[in-house]
């Protein structure tokens, strides 16, 4: 039995909900997207939202035209205003990623994704920095400098990969970063700017970025990278399968920037993991499973030890990098499918959002916190086997001695929520329903119902100020348990035996 | 095993949802009430709403005044319009009960209830009929004759009880009925009028009402009575306990009017049971229990055999006959507590609302119906023991052979919802929480959560066009089961073994 | 003075609101679009919605893939379901236009519009008809045959223009039509199919289409064409100017199909004008003006004489044929701008939606109807000068003698709404504000306010059952006037002179 | 011409919106009330809400019962929680008035109002203080001490009037105050407590209250009184007429506490005018008129000079002191009628809510403020004649020289809203409609429409950094004018002459 200490060693850090990822920004114009955003904001409470495509053609910002024979560029914010208004209305702030290249400013035709984000350097740096300045200036004008200073600005995405930056040209990226960072600071020196938004495989890039920044005296207010644990994609139609490394590998990746930058000028800079997930593919069915929630639970709980934020990629399945999804469960990144069906990993985050501000203890399969009103909350998870080599048991036992209020005897009201292979698992229901590609409204209702966690409650005795809490976790279960000391208001005249139908047992 | 026939013998009648009861009409001005009404309308779909107090002072319709020395009466519809607008906005129609007496028209000071409904005859019959005519005329003007003709009009409430009609004066009631019925018909002959809204204990009243109606040639478009099964109240502070007769006694009461009126001019008249419940007290804890849902299940399923409607008394706990409730669970009549916590009996009705239009079979512990799209739905319930003399078993087994689509092999998706002593039972959770009288917002959230039914799903084989469906019901369980034939869209390339974390078992 | 007859010669036809146009269908996924759709549905009540792009890549329906070395096509309805669900939720039905070509099925690379709708014939007719059948079959399965039979299906768009159909190849269109119409009928013979959706300039196409249909015995349940009155585009950056023919030219175009088809097998077929507007350009400022409402008023009032429907192109400015709009007022087709600012022409439609079912009279500058409750409603409009050659006066007088209830004296409550150069004219306000490209939230509030019509009310005497109603219309005004006979409930004790601050005059 | 200074002498104080009055607290359970509250909160932004009846029987807090032969009291918060939750959900805080007396604790049967508030002292002071303590303790437990400390607590209402406090017994009030204030402080010493909530006619009470508080060392955190200007009621059925003193008399009353308390221990205490209006009757038609808004405008603008708050009595017509209203316009106190029709005085407040934080100048007929973004806003009002002896002119001219941005030339966008005898005046429309007692839904729509202010906009030149703003106010007009410096974004290629239908003039 694990004895949870009664004194808190400190707060449970908020890094897990600082930011979350999203599909390309113009998808934020959609109702399904906005409904999903409102839901995750209400039930999870992410602070920022980061996605690609701010400067891509679908946002319509960079608009060249000819007048009296001369080329001009108009900067238009029709879509950007709607996107940012929608975010702020939902209570979530932009984490601005500057990219990709507007086609009329692009140095080439190379694109990434089904929606063709142009990944080439600008053919005119002055036109690019004018675009950056105009955009930031507009945002400051519309939303106020005080607000915009809380929006980190990241330069480009994964420049170390040729899919995202032509030839993965490191010098070209440094040049882009330098011009861009200065352009941002010209608008308002207090707007934080950073990069280089590296992919997991980048070798030496971060060190060289630090060295470049020092050499050129370029502003870097934070550093960023991404983290994924999947192997190569094995394709099937509309999907892939991949192997996964153990989840701890994600924590290693989160920790890498602080290690790499120790001793450089960027040593103290905030580290933002601006994307993380198991698989980097939006069509890997693992994202939809109970396994996935249990796999990521220890990462989400411990990630704050290693980075200032780590952004789950992505909050919903309105996302089209490999095309428009062909089924409600298609292996998308989202915490939510289209139409707001909660996946198991959604519940992992929603459970975490119900934890208290004061950490009591943490372990391999549990996290215990306390609320200011005295409630104690437990997050517990079963072990997983991503390799398929050491199958996990059907039941995982865990027993905690939980401090609950002052010493003495009493009773605790214990509420438990759980998701596993059977519960809170709309994917399992969908498979049983026959994997309907276009579920009917009735089927959507059933899927929403199947996505609700298992719920139960009971009373346990408090002895010596403690509750002996035995938990048995099902396969791939993630459980949330809340313990509240009972203050009994049952009136003195109440006689349970007079209630009709009471259990005689 | 019970073999459910594949052919429907006919429709499952809708009498169970024709009407539902409510606390006094001016409570309909409240937001909590309107929110509750919208919820029951959406999830259950009652057609009409009947409550006391249309002419009581809280509705402010009858408004005498003096002008130039003479007494006049103004008929004012400020509240009535808001009440009826709210009902119609929720999609539910009034079932008008004409009563009680405005104090300025009353023949005495006798009142009923904490809110003092005056139960005396009018001191001026012409002023009463003017009130009736003015009210109906106003309603026809505002909502149209076509609409108002769908609103039955019932004269008074339980005149056979001295608490509700001074001295239970039968002749006086007949006079009131006659004057009132004619007044209604003067406004529009197609508005249905009826009575006499008798209490369960009325002896001979219905026969004499028929005889009176024939003798005086008075219009009677329907007859009405009430049904309850509880014994005398044993009081505790803010509550009572009572014995209950077996639920079948309710069906006897439903059936009594057709028996009593056989051979009279009213033999063919529609019979509306305008109130029914187990206990007639709004402070008996039985209303809040899982026992109550299981007790009433066979009544709600079979009631349509005996009457054209039977109105559960009442849809929500916004109801103040014995005073303002002092706790969220106080034994109120409501399907819903204040703030829309669903009670087990709410789910009984919500499950019934999901049954199909075509009856397949009915039994002591089950009802099976079919939807037009082929889904088969089962309502099943465990036996109860209201007397405390023959305790029910902890498990009640039931096994059905359910026809599902054409002959041949296949699979069925089976979805089950259930409420019992542990599930869908906010009352049990509230007791465990310590019976908080004024639950905090967090406790209200937990109670809403605890009120959700248990949910599960599985696949069962279809053999020879049938599913062998074993159901084991828990103590006091009411279960809803839906069977859908699976049309499998799993693509040919899907290989379950490639899914990470799949159960190797 | 025009004497309005007291007897109605018949109903005012509903052709004006049978259908309305929209930008490409996947824009229906946007929140701004859905909010706009809900608004026009509530305040105007269009029955159907027609737009391009059902089969374009942005809807993601046609999805080829390779499995075990063979090419297959999956038909995916992820977006289509969301689009149709959104329409039906708003209470509006699809008018399905089958087109453009999925790029993976296209016979060439030619595209139209900024969003690149492919305008080439299918490279495989069987794959095209499979796509049509699969889509209709899916819709019938999801929404029911009874529902889908109310959705007209139109084959392609403006095949007589090379921008919309490669080489404007008439035979190729006939082949496409024939294959498509048969495919639709295979799904359900009661689904109406038609075409050929001609542009205004098509010469002889309709006659040849009728002849082809007869010769090949191809089903044609309705015929369709478009109507516009603008001359060639004179370009400026992000916009055009054009001349306009007099509005009566639109009525000529509406009338052309019945004339052309007289004597053919299609003589009795319903005629749908599936697009009409003044200018065919989505960047002509005329669409935003008060002039435009007054220009179209006589067309909208009289159009029902000539066609079974005529669909305003389009209901809102979420529309991107020439790119993403760069300002809230950019000359878009919409009745509404982005963010639901009502344009003057929106009010023309909203006023028409308030007219009664019974026509009383119609004239060059007015329409008078009566409601079932006796109210009389007038739509009146000032003359316009599209040519700039005969400037219109600042004031246009009109005087009507309006029958209002039975003969005799009394009073009328007269309510007037109007839009003109100063009122209900957000465009004028926007120009005065300095034409802000990205209005701030406060500016948007002011624009919404400026878009509200002028409102006034007064009392006029009724003499001999008639009201002498003088109306003076401002420049480009469209006015709505409602006359109600006053039923005075002022109590006898009311003495106006006792009201403090009353006008002594 | 009045030259508005360019420099602000200081902020415009917020006293006008610190608090607003309401009908008895249990009316807050109604939907109409809550809808009205949400509206005034959104458009006006009152901070607190004060009403009678917290301890009256309709709130059901004081609940005596007998158990085992002994009398006990249960304190029940079923309604209070719903009321406070509703306020806080609307963003408005309670200003708690402790009263009237629960009937089971009352020392007598005397009541006030149609709803019978008991106005007698407690028959047991200990039971009263237990009630106060229990209620405050519950509120602190539910909403937190930090929150409840922002809710002033006022002891009783108008004890100087025998209608509100038996025999207007001053010593009995002092005893009640003392016991109550100590009970409040026992719960939390930081909760502000005060009184004595005097009526306008109280003579010497405040001075004696200060002397009593000093003598007995009783906590008094604020002092309160009421202000009205009407003469005696002249009754008609369902209404009254009264004379009114000039509005300046209200300011005298606001100023009286500071004068009276100068030199006492309460000299520095905050002064809350916890009720004010012209007439103290809820059935005087003056409340519904445009006259009323113009009459109160100078009071609302200047009141902050004299008191820390002054609460308009009341925010809506859901109010029943003289019975349930018999018509939508019945002379109620409300800023809003039932169903949220805005009265002219509502607009006075809504206009004030749009004024900027920085005062520029104030005068007899105007107030000018500036927003942080540079906009200048003007509130202007026409003179009134409450006595009927010196009729006001039909037009009231006013001319301001308004500083707008830096020196130099330019243009201003000027937006004007106004309410007067013709505009923003639903009462005038209702009279013209024939004073319908129970307006139909269509009539309600027309009344909402008629309640909208007149709106116009224009451009004026800026010369030397100033706009010459001539305003002509109509009879009883209250106008809001907003001036914004135009930043012109009209593109260089725009040629107004090319716009079809442009005014050639």
UniProtKB/TrEMBL annotation, chains A, B, C, D:
GO terms for molecular function: hydrolase activity, hydrolyzing O-glycosyl compounds. The keyword Hydrolase applies. InterPro entries: GH, GH39_cat, Glyco_hydro_39, Glycosyl_Hydrolase_39. One of its GO terms (biological process) is carbohydrate metabolic process. It comes from the Bacteria. Residues 2-464 form the Glycosyl hydrolases family 39 N-terminal catalytic domain. Keywords: Glycosidase, Hydrolase. The active site is at 158 (proton donor). Belongs to the glycosyl hydrolase 39 family. This is Xylan 1,4-beta-xylosidase. The lineage of its organism: Bacteria, Bacillati, Actinomycetota, Actinomycetes, Kitasatosporales.
């Amino acid at each position: 039995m694990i004895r949870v200490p009664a004194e808190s060693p400190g707060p449970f850090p908020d890094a897990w909900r600082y930011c979350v990822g999203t599909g390309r920004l113009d998808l934020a114009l959609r109702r399904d997207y906005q409904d999903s955003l409102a839901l995750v904001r209400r039930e999870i409470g992410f602070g920022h939202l980061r996605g690609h495509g701010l400067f891509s053609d679908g946002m319509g910002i960079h608009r060249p035209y000819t007048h009296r024979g001369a080329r001009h560029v108009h900067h238009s914010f029709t879509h950007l205003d709607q996107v940012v208004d929608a975010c702020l209305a939902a209570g979530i702030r932009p984490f601005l990623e500057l990219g990709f290249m507007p086609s009329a400013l692009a140095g080439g035709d190379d694109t990434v994704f089904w929606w063709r984000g142009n990944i080439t350097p600008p053919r005119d740096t002055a036109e690019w920095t004018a675009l950056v300045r105009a955009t930031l200036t507009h945002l400051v004008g519309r939303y106020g400098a005080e607000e915009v200073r809380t929006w980190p600005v990241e330069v480009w995405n994964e420049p170390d990969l040729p899919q995202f930056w032509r030839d993965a040209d490191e010098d070209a990226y440094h040049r882009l970063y330098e011009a861009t960072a200065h352009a941002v600071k010209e608008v308002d020196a207090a707007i934080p700017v950073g990069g280089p938004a590296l992919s997991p495989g980048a070798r030496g890039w971060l060190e060289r970025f630090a060295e470049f920044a020092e050499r050129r005296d370029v502003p870097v207010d934070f550093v960023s990278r991404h983290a994924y644990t999947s192997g190569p994609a094995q394709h099937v139609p509309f999907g892939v399968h991949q192997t996964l490394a153990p989840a701890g590998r994600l924590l290693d990746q989160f920790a890498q920037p602080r290690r790499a930058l120790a001793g450089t000028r960027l040593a103290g800079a905030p580290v933002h993991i601006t994307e993380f997930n198991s698989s980097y593919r939006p069509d890997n069915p693992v994202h939809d499973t109970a396994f996935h929630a249990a796999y990521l639970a220890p990462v989400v709980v411990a990630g704050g030890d290693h980075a200032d934020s780590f952004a789950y990629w992505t909050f919903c399945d309105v996302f089209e990098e490999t095309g428009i999804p062909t089924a409600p469960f298609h292996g998308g990144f989202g915490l939510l499918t289209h139409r707001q069906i909660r996946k198991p990993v959604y519940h992992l985050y929603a459970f975490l959002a119900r934890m208290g501000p004061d950490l009591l203890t943490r372990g391999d399969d549990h996290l215990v916190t306390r609320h200011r009103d005295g409630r104690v909350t437990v997050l517990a998870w079963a072990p997983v086997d991503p390799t398929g080599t050491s199958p996990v048991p059907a039941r995982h036992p865990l027993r905690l001695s939980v401090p609950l209020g002052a010493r003495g005897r009493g009773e605790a009201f214990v509420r438990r929520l759980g998701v596993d292979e059977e519960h809170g698992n709309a994917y399992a229901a969908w498979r049983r329903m026959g994997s309907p590609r276009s579920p009917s409204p009735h089927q959507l209702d059933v899927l929403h119902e199947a996505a609700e966690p298992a719920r139960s409650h009971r009373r346990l005795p408090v002895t010596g100020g403690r509750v002996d809490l035995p938990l048995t976790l099902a396969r791939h279960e993630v459980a949330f348990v809340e313990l509240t000391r009972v203050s009994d208001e049952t009136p003195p005249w109440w006689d349970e035996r007079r209630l009709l139908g009471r259990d005689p047992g």
